[in-house]
Amino acid sequence: MKKNQNHTGAIVLAKMFASFLETVAGKRSGHTITGYRCAMRLFASFAEQRLGANTSRFDITYFTESNVSGFLQWLRDEQGVSPQTCNNRLCQLRAFLKHASKDPAVMPYYLSLCQIERYATENRTRVVEPLSRDTIKTMMSTPGTATETGLRYTLVIALLYTMALRVDEVLSIRIKDLMLDVSKPYVTVVGKGRKARTAYFFKATLKTLRKYIEKEHGEHPNPDAYLIFSRSGGQFCKASARGINKQLAVYAAKARESCPEVPESLHSHQFRHSMATHMLEDGMNVFQISKMLGHESVETTMDYLGVTVSMLDSAIQKIESTAAQSIKPVWEKNIRKLQDLF
């Protein structure tokens, strides 16, 4: 015989939140609504883990300045969330409390959230413009492979684009990081935050890589040598990103003669951004793209792909508009986690 569970406290809050979502439906994008729900689910998870909340004891009184500040710190320290995303979560919870504050009893909690200061963030730069596929094709063929410099930059462009690597990740690769004699050749790169990840080679890139290693490193490469090394400093001296970008600008000027789309301000990071954008346009799941890029969260990837994020917006709206008609609330089921209510 099943025990009767008292979900009253949490259900009241869940119904308030559902009412809020119904009110903003049609006035906010699907992506924004998804953000509201994500913020609430995360706060519920935090409250359960840190504040002793459960399905019978989780209500509006948990939205105090102290609790929400603790929640934001938890996101920063334990979930690795960026300051900008923390600020977004705060705004999303405030939006819900503002709606609920039509009830005078809720107003003090809304005002307490208004006292919380936002995290300082760096100035947001404009979204990186992806390069067109024609531009990529032209840039890939411009250096050529007949000369040492041409082969070097053909490889650099291939690594930046086909593997969506950051320029510093490319320049930090040592011979020992390459695993070429396996069924799926790959390289281990170290990205931001000193986090390592695996990146797999396309066949064409692998062919260029082998040719480059043979020409630049010989038959028996030193494992500790940098793959793309400094011409002046030698194999154990890392090449500079500034030098790479300077030479890319030279090739961009040459490529522009046959492809006017090549931007005058072309820089290395645009190749990585372009690969991610092209994969999104080709239908790749944003979660897969996020993993490929080495981002800590999908939200970072969504920001990163702002140029085409409207495609995801549209998809989310369609999904939610149809799902809302068919999915029933889970309030009457055995709820194991608070976040399942939202």
Sequence-ordered SSE layout with sheet pairings:
Elements lengths: L7 H17 L5 H21 L14 H14 L4 H18 L6 H8 L18 H9 L6 H15 L4 H5 L6 E2 L6 E5 L5 E5 L2 H14 L12 E2 L3 E5 L2 H15 L13 H13 L4 H8 L4 H7 L4 H18 L16
Antiparallel strand pairs: 1-2, 2-3, 4-5
Helix pairs in contact: 2-4, 3-4, 4-5, 6-7, 7-9, 7-11, 12-13
Give me the side-by-side strand order of the main sheet: 1-2-3
What is the average per-residue confidence, as pLDDT, rounded to a whole number? 85
Largest pleated sheet? 3 strands, antiparallel
SSE order: HHHHHHHHEEEHEEHHHHH
Number of alpha- plus pi-helical segments: 14
Radius of gyration: 25 Å
Please provide the count of β strands: 5
List unreliable stretches of 5+ residues. 1-7, 307-313, 318-327
Classify the helix fraction into a percent range: 40-55%
User: Approximately how much beta-strand content do the residues carry?
Assistant: 5-15%
The rounded distance between the terminal residues' Cα atoms is 28 Å
* Helix-and-strand structural type: mainly alpha
Q: Which geometry do the CA atoms define?
A: elongated
